[in-house]
Design a protein that fits this description.
With 313 residues, the chain is mainly beta. 14% of the residues are buried. The protein has helices spanning 3-26, 87-93, 287-295, and strands spanning 108-120, 126-136, 140-151, 154-169, 172-183, 188-199, 203-212, 217-224, 227-228, 233-244, 256-268, 274-285, 301-312. Strands 1-2-3-4-5-6-7-8-10-11-12-13 form a twelve-stranded antiparallel barrel. 13% of the residues lie in helices and 46% in strands.
Amino acid sequence: MSAASRFASVVVACAFVAAPASAAFSQPAPAGEGPAAGTAQSGDQSHPHNPPKPPESGGASAPAQQGHEGHAQPPKTPPAGVPPLTDEDRRAAFPDVEGHTVHDRAINYFVLFDRLEWQSGGGANGFTVDTNGWIGGDLNRFRFRAEGESAGGDLHAAEAHALYGRALARWWDVVAGVRQDLEPGPARTWAAVGIQGLAPYWFEVEATAYIGESARTHVRLQVEYELLLTNRLILQPLVEVDLYGKAIPESGIGAGLSRTEGGLRLRYEIRRELAPYVGVTWSRKYGGTADFAREAGEDASGARLAVGVRVWF
């Protein structure tokens, strides 16, 4: 269709639309109600678009002059026995919370002594300490871990981590840094990289891979869960697995699957930050690690009773 034809169609359509409106204005007024359209004055009360003018004063039209003032609702009063709401109440209900809406530069910290316990069994009593924590912001944090075990008054095992952590997803962090072994055997340094976080069904997972001198490798997997029997009584199972790529005879470690440890601890939270507990642990050594333990006169497996306290701040 040409431009001229399209223009003509538009004109015809506009004429049809305008015709009813013009007819409405051209209809004669009913008899006795004033002159016909076309002769009506601009102020004619009978014109469809000229509503009657309200009286200038007095009469029943007074409320109409008040506009929306008549819609104002009376102030609400609290029920009987309820004190009126004050600004202090509002401030207490809606405090200024920093760092929960967006990623910002607020610095926070957390320190947890997950195991601070005395163990008995296997022919020797001793103490165990397992602590970890972090300091930093929402995305970037410095993390540390430290573990130590004593048996018969002697330090049996000790290690410490210094790690940089970066939030990878909502519940997961990737970590990288160094680990320093103090016992058993000579001191040894490892490079560390891993991932930690909260898996589906609320399992806390910590998986770390290490590489040390002479291309020695080590992988550690730790999984724990917290089962709330009540709001204060919590059962915590824990499983830890160690694997080594090469044997380390001077430290009594064999290649392959080296050790597994399981624990079941029942704690009562006096406060969320303070919870004494009792539990039982079971450990077993495998392969070359078990052989080294037997040569040293130690048991390759055994259960121990644990009594301790869990603290965080």
